[in-house]
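Thread title: Can someone regenerate the structure for this chain?

I was given the following input by a collaborator and told the matching structure tokens would be attached. They weren't. Posting the sequence so someone can regenerate them.
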Amino acid sequence: MTNIATVKALDSRVIRNILRSMINEHWSVSEALDEYDIPDYLREEYEAKIEQCFLD
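Best answer:
Regenerated them for you:
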């Protein structure tokens, strides 16, 4: 069974990969989420986490 710490670690790894792809491939957030097959019900959460990476 997967515990919450494992899920959060995987989630953070996906966010890092999405950010790297956005930079390397010049993708928008939407394009990156599409490329990583992030389901619609999680997109708002991922967009918020990605936004936090760009805020001071």
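The chain has a mean pLDDT of 84.
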